[in-house]
Each structure stands twice: as C-alpha cells, then as structure tokens.
Amino acid sequence: MRPAGAGALAETRDLVTNFYTFEGVVHALNGVSVVIRRGETYGLVGESGCGKSVTVRSLMRIVQAPGRIDSGAILLFLNDSDQGAGVEILERTETYMQSIRGSDISMIFQEPGAALNPVLSVRDQVGESFRLHRMEQMIDETLAGLEESRRGMRSGSPRRLVRALQGALLRAESRGFKRFAAAVSRIDAELAQLESRDEAAARIRREALNDARDRARPRGGASAVARRIPLLRRYRRPLDATIRRHVVELLRSLGIPNPANVAERYPHELSGGMQQRIVIAMALACHPTLLVADEPTSNLDVTIQAQIVELIKDLKRSTISSVLFITHDLGLVAEVCDRVTVMYAGDVSETAAVAELFARPLHPYTQGLLASVPKVDQREELSMIPGAVPNLIRPPEGCRFHPRCPRRMEVCSREKPPAVEHLPDHWVACHLYPPAVRKAAAGGTT
Amino acid sequence: MTPDTLVDVRSLKKYYPVTGGVFRRRIADVKAVDGVDLALKRGECVGLVGESGCGKTTLGKAVLRLHKATEGRIYFGQDPALVEKVEVMLAAADPAERSRGRALARTMDLNRLSGRALLALRQKIQVVFQDPTNSLDPRMLVRDIVAEPLTAQHLVKPQDVESRVLELLAIVGLTPDHLLRYPHEFSGGQRQRIAIARALATSPEFILMDEPTSALDVSVQAQILNLLKRLQAEFHLTYLFVTHHLLVVKYISHRIAVMYLGKIVETGPTSEIFERPLHPYTRALLSAIPVPDPLTRREKIILSGDVPNPIDPPAGCRFHPRCPHAREICRTAEPPLAPVDAGGRTVACHRWREI
C-alpha cells in the first residue's frame, strides 16, 4: 500500500464498491487507492463504466442502493488536528457526513438540469447551503443589522418593539446553534482520539458517541415555539434577507449577469451554462476545501464548456484548495489538471503528473487511450483499442484489461498487477513493470 | 457548383410554429434553419459543425425528408446544369418565367417529391443516428433490423435476404453468430455497427451521420471512425457528418460547414479552416477545443453569453451580440455568405478581411 504522503487531503485505500443488482453483483470498484493532495487539481479519467463516478460517490458516501462500499478505507485530512491519522469516514455516522458534504467537500454534478430542484427558486437552492452550514454566521449578521436599524428609531415605537422581539427570538435560535456546535465538536474530538483503536471498550464508546451525534439537534427554545405560530413565524424575515444578500453576492462573484434577477428565477428559466453556474454557486457557498466536479461540462456546448472550465480554474486560484475533476475527455484533463489517474473497469491503471502522463504513458491502456483520440494534427489513421469495456458482473480475471491488451503476457490473466512507482511519482499497475526491476527500467527508454 | 455535385441545398428554411392564445394560433416561429445553401460533391464528407440548437440536425432531417422544409429546394442527384437553369428561372424577374421554373423544380426538388418518386430516392439516402440504443428496435433480431430496408424496398428476393444480411454484417465487422441476437446483447460500439449495416443495406449514395460517435467511448469511437472512413472509400459514399466534436470532424471530413443559429457562417476545406479560421465564431469554436496535450497552451477566445433564442434572432449579423469584433454595420446589415477565394471557401462576415 502506498503511503498517504505529505499534504494529502483525501485518500482511498483498496476501496471495493459493489452493486447488488438482479443480474448479479457488479464489481464496480476493485480495490481503488487514490490520493488527492492539498492544493492540486486532480483528474480521474476513464471511459464509461470505469468506476470514476463510483469512486467519488464512495468518497462522499453517496453510493446509491443497490450499491455498497464493501471494504477499504476512506481517509480525510480536513484540518490540522486530524493531519496525523485522518478521519476514517466509513466509521462515522450519516449526520457527520451531512455536516461535511456541501461545507468541506462539495460536488458539481454532470447534469445541471437534474441536479437542481425545479420547484425551488435559485435563491432558495443556493441559500440552502448557507442555512445548513453557516446558520450561526447568518443569524449573527442579521442580529447586527437589526441592532443597527433599531438604534435609529424612537424608543417605544411599535416598529422598534417588533425589532426587539425579532432580535430576542433570533438570539434564542443562535444560542441553540452554539450549544449544538459545541456538543458536536466535543463528540468529534473524542471520536478522533478513539479512531484507530480496536479494543472492545473503545468500540463500544465509539458507538455510543456516534449515537449521541445522531441524536444531537440544535434546540431553539422560544424560537422553536415561535416558528410554529403563524404571525410570530415572521421573525425570521430579516434572516431571509441576509441569506438573500449572500446569495446575490455569491452569484455576482461567479460572473452571473444581473444576479439579483437571476436569484428569483427557477431553473427551467435558465440556459444550460447558467444552470451549471448555479450548481457551482451551491457548491461554493461554504468555501469547500475540496470541490468534486463530476463531468461538469459534458452536456454543454464547446464555447460554454470553455466558459465553465475557465471559471473553475479561476476559482481554483482564488477560493478552493483542491479540485477533483472527473472527465472522459483527455483534452480537458490536459488543460485543467495537475495530476491524473487513469481508471479502467474499476481498477486504477496509472497515476502521474499530467505532463508526465501525456509524455510517457506506461500502461498499455493509457497508451491506447491517448492514441485513439483524434489530435489537432492527425494525419495517419487513428489507432484503436480492439474490443469493448468488459461487463463488470463477470470481469476478466487478473488484470481486467488483459483481453484487450496488445502486450498481454501469461501472468496477466492470473494475477492482478500491483501499483508500482515505476518512475518518481509515476505509479502504474501493470505486469510489464514489476516491482523488482524498478531501478533498472527507470534508467531505460521509458 | 461543380459537375459532380450529389446534394445541392438551396436557400433552405425550416420554421417550427409556436402556438399560443385560446385558439392556439401561430404567434411566432422557431427559425431552426433560416436560409442555408450547401452543396456536397460525390464521395465527399462534409462536416456540419455547430452548437446545440444551431439547426444542424434540422438541416440533416430536411435532406432526409424526415420533415418537409418550409421553403427552399433540395436537389439530390440531379443534373447540375439543369439545376442551375431552374435556379436562374426561379430567380427571374418575369413571373411567367418563375412559374415555369417552379413547375420544373417540382419534379426535381426532393422537398416536393412524393409517392413513388420519393420512395425511389429514399433508397439512395440513409442515416445513422446518434444513439444506437434508441435507433434500434429492442424487440427485433439483428437479422430483421438489417433486413428491413431490403424487404421494405423489395431489393432482393426473400430467399437471398439472409445471405445479403450476412454480407453486410461482415462489412461492418460483425460475425454470423451475431445474426440471431437482440440489440441489448451488444455493446454500444457493436450496436452502432448494426446501425451502419442497416444504413448500407440499400447500397445508398448518401448517408447522413447524425453524431454517430458521440454516445460512444473514446476507444470505441476510434474503431467506428476508422470503419466509416474505410466504408466511404470502399463504396464511394457521400457523408454529411453532423457533430459538435471538432476533432472528430477534422479527422473524417474533407470540408467543413460551420453553423450558427440557423445559418452557415463559414465553409471551406477542413485543413484550411483549421489553419486559418476567418469567421470570429469559427475562431472561438476552434480555440475552445480542449487539446489532449498539456504542453500546448493556446490563447483561448472565451465568448460571453449564450446562443440567442432562435424565435427572435438578433438583427444584422446573428453573431454580433457575442462577437468581440462587432461594429455598427454588424448590428444592422446581415452579412451574405460570400466566397473568399477560388478554393471554395466562403464566409459570412462583414469584417473578416480586417480581423
């Protein structure tokens, strides 16, 4: 197993995800190990069915039934406190995942039309991120605003009384949130300490803590009562205004023309490119550490694709730390990514820096893939990989690429090749590059 | 117009009505194709490029006569000299001359043919659609799918159908044991091969390729592209290759026509267009292609905004709201598709000489 290395942000180790369908078990991921480092744009590339989407869905723990993560580990190194061992998210509860999704890790989906809710306006959908993850800040800002406007009013005036009531209820809500946040961080800290311990007592304590985290809710006291009473419910209006201001600000920062107007629209009123910007806005609302972009441009036109890619590159420079970019388009990989992993039929074939991978592809699949893409100066006939991607219910034994491989050997159909660092920071999983002869081959022609 | 022209499209328009109000009256038109001239030589592959909604599929369907164009003529396999004569008559100032021209065109124009004459032409025109999962009937055997055009057109005797089907399957790289299977048993690439075999069944002269590789994986796409190229040379086929994937077009076509919002903005030989694009839209389109080579860093032209609504296209040049070089004349006058040189390049831009 390769070490996490310095500066890792997320890592999967020998991840196995299967889908239990009527036709049989689809072995979608066959022991996938990838490392996403801090501050890089990391590409996952492969053909349909190679498991690139399942990998990120596993990473975010949103694999849908009948799929299941059967073994392996997923480690997150989000903040300095867990820089050492990392958080093993497969052991955490669903509520923990919910607090991470959309705030520390967020995702842009392939089809913006399907990712957006057609019955909610843009303001509500983008605002949801603020409501779920940054409510405390929103309430505090609203309270400050209320205080400001109250100061200008005559004492005892009815409007001032209304403001005072709103303030009191919001403060109650804020207290509830603060207590909740404190409790949750206490639980998480203790869990992190117990993380890798295996004795029975630790396991029982872990379970109890996970249960407690599931049960924890922000309690609003008086505000919870007020929210159920029709007229009093309106105490939250200034809060809505604050969230709306943030949404419009966010839309403006993404270069959406006329953001105040767009915020009130519904998804069907927007073009595909604009919808994708809204999805990006939702993903960026909480300044995620890792942005996962699952084929963000494959349903868009080339000129719109260029706009969106440029936007993601800009955001990478300015706001987000790391981007995990999934695509089947090698051209996009070359343009966007720093490091890239090529996947085939649920296996990692090759991982290297982009320039390195395009200059010296080692795995026969990578070589075939690069050769089968039409180039700008394509003159001779396109070379092609014979055959088709295998059915993953009955994947080929050994190396899953061997039936299509032009350089297959006898060992390929028996053993799965291990990942080997054949050149510095250039990993490949192929029997052509056995671990023992690494040094000899590294000096050779490859 | 050259003597070996096979398909000649003249000022073709296709409007889709938009209805509204209590009586569902026609209140506007979606101008999907708005005056297109395009000629395809025999044995040539013309790539039709453009973004979604620019009318490239509508144009293709009109050439297939899957729907009737609103206006314009499509000549298929007609004597070019005669076509030229009819066109001159149709453009004449004298109304009597014009009506004589219309009478002549009625028997030549694919858009106005019907019955037997149309059926005979259909034999020569075939199509391969984008997604083979949808274009093949899931309840039919491969044998029946490929044989259907043969039996529908009564081209071979019933006892010879099977041998002809086997021959077609061999041409596209399938084997006899594929004969009695259903489409769902095949991979995407193989399904597209079945669709190609079906298109070849009637020995057509012209095949419309409507994004035949965009539903396929990269490694399979290369197989299909090589197959199509080989078939074209072998059977002297004429392709109209509709796609938005520019590198695919570059690989397979001899000439390119770039469409934007219902109009052709530039045509020319593939290599020349890629080397020296003249229209600002073509330039932006070409610069936006992601190049699979991390070492080439090209200056990208990022267009602002989206494609406008074809119900109400911008006045003047349709590209002017997104064009970085737009001037006053672009907002008022519509540029004609004018020849650039003797090599058959045309461009519809007021300012191509300056920019």
Any overview of this molecule?
With 446 residues, chain A is an alpha/beta fold. Helix content of chain A is 41%, strand content 18%. Chain A contains 16 helices and 12 strands. In chain A, helix 12 links the parallel strand 7 and strand 8 (322-327). In chain A, helix 4 crosses helix 9 (237-253) and helix 5 (135-151) packs antiparallel against helix 6 (158-194). The longest helix of chain A is centred in the middle third of the chain and has 37 residues, at 158-194. Chain A is globular and about 90 Å long. The chains are: A alpha/beta (446), B alpha/beta (355). The interface between A and B is large, with 43 and 40 residues.
Taking Cα atoms only, what radius of gyration of chain A do you get, to the nearest Å? 25 Å
- How many helices of chain B? 13
Structural class of chain B: alpha/beta
Oligomer category: heterodimer
N-to-C SSE string of chain A, H for helix and E for strand: EEEHEEHEHHHHHHHHHEHEHEEHHEEH
Q: What share of residues of chain A is helical? A: 40-55%
Portion of residues in helices of chain B?
Answer: 25-40%
What is the overall silhouette of chain B? globular
Uncertain runs of chain B:
none
Largest two-chain interface: A-B, 43 and 40 residues
Largest sheet of chain A: 8 strands, mixed
Mean pLDDT over all positions of chain B: 89
Strand order across the largest sheet of chain A: 6-7-8-3-9-10-12-11
Proportion of residues in extended strands of chain B: 15-25%
| Strand proportion of chain A | 15-25%
Rg of chain B: 22 Å
Overall structural class of chain A, as computed from helix and strand content, comes to: alpha/beta
Could you provide a short overview of the structure?
The complex is a heterodimer of chains A (446) and B (355). Chain A is an alpha/beta fold and 446 residues long. Chain A contains 16 helices and 12 strands.
